[in-house]
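We modelled each protein-ligand pair independently. The example shown here corresponds to the zinc ion entry; the chain sequence is given first, followed by the ligand as SMILES.
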Amino acid sequence: MDEFLKSAPQLCQSMIKTAANAITCIDTHEQESQEILNDLRINLEKYCRNIEKHKKINELSEEILEVPEENRASLLDNFCENINSFEPNVVNSEYLKEFDDRVAALMKNSGQQTNNDDSVSAGDELQIAQNNINLICPISKSKMTEPMQNKICGHVYDKSSVVSLLEMSQNTRCPIVGCSNRQYLSLQHLKCDIVTQMCVETNNE
Ligand SMILES: [Zn+2]
């Protein structure tokens, strides 16, 4: 994978972090934070489109390289045209989805209403409720200091709790009751849960 695509998750995470800041720090100026959120969403969407274009360029380049050199001319002629006419659909982008989910959860947590609340379906509402931010570690039952999300099942726990579980046994599965993740816990499966982290920090102030 090239550098541009490698940096995508980080950039998206930092946009979510900015959104979280806008919600938690500017909640007295609702309109201002709403404007920031709208701008971020527009930029993230553009960025997601660029990611898809980038993937398309890589794909087309690989196709061209598979063709013997003497036959490449016509393919190269079409190359730019193909790229320019490519209109990626990013509605289902994982990054946009994560952004929307996180913003909805933060809004709910801070008592603000999202713009499109009227159009929220029952399913979405359930999703948002599930995303409501919990600052208590389900393992240690105390307030988290370094919330981490399991990338496989999505459960969130404090890093230190996972470390102590792993110290007791390497063959430990996600400790959340009913979790269908059958893989053993590993720090490599955990990513920093930025939004919960922000809430922990705001909560400490
Ligand atoms: Zn789990």
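The CA atoms of residues 162 and 187 lie 8 Å apart.
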